[in-house]
Amino acid sequence: MPTKLFDPLSTRARVDQVVAQVNRIAAWAQSDPLNLSGSLALPPWTTLILTAPWAAWDPPETSWNLPGYVKDANGFVHLRGLLNSGATPGLGNVVATLPAGFRPRKYHYFSTPCQTDRVSSWYVQPDGGISIQGIIPAPIVANSYYSWSGITFPAEQ
């Protein structure tokens, strides 16, 4: 007699166990044990003042976000926006400065897209300065776009 590979009774018992576990998880999640409901909504974004020759890529903000920052309920700062370099930017120059309370304790290094097919590197500094450090592949050219979307770090001072 061939070995039975599928036993509908044991399979049904296992399905019942899985359903019970899913129901327990759903009840736990609805009780909000991690206080997620309060931390999901972000406060309003604050627009950053950029150092010349930098400017917002889309000043009326019709298609792209203005360069800005926000701090979430968990103490993380988020940057966003698309920037226009204006003239050829100098490496190491501060593009904008975050106010106290939105600054990291140590340097944070990020890479973001720029100029369609390149990557730019940025420092967020303990004094609040946000500076461009490089671009790969070189060269840096005038009037190119740079994204800050996705830059996130803990606000520690």
List the main descriptive attributes of the protein structure presented here:
alpha+beta; Immunoglobulin-like; 4-stranded antiparallel β-sheet; 2 helices; elongated
Polypeptide structure, described:
The protein is an alpha+beta fold and 157 residues long. The protein has helices at residues 8-30, 36-39; strands at 46-47, 55-56, 68-71, 76-80, 82-84, 94-97, 108-114, 118-124, 129-136, 145-147, 152-154. The chain has one domain (37-154): Immunoglobulin-like, CATH 2.60.40. It contains 2 helices and 11 strands; from the N terminus they run ααβββββββββββ. The strands form 3 sheets. A 4-stranded antiparallel beta sheet has the order 1-3-4-11, with no helix packed on it. A 4-stranded antiparallel beta sheet has the order 6-9-8-7, with no helix packed on it. Strands 2-5-10 form a 3-stranded antiparallel beta sheet, with no helix packed on it. The longest helix has 23 residues, at 8-30. The radius of gyration is 24 Å and the shape is elongated.
- Helical residue percent band: 10-25%
E-strand count: 11
Radius of gyration: 24 Å
Q: Return the CATH class.
A: Mainly Beta
Architecture in CATH? Sandwich
- Reported by name, the CATH topology is Immunoglobulin-like
Reading side by side through the largest sheet, how are the strands ordered?
Answer: 1-3-4-11
Low-confidence stretches: none
Strand content: 25-35%
Distance between the termini: 74 Å
Secondary-structure element series: HHEEEEEEEEEEE
User: Mean pLDDT across all residues, rounded?
Assistant: 82
- Largest sheet at a glance? 4 strands, antiparallel
Please count the helical segments: 2
- The shape is elongated
Class derived from helix and strand content: alpha+beta
Taken together, the total number of domains comes to: 1
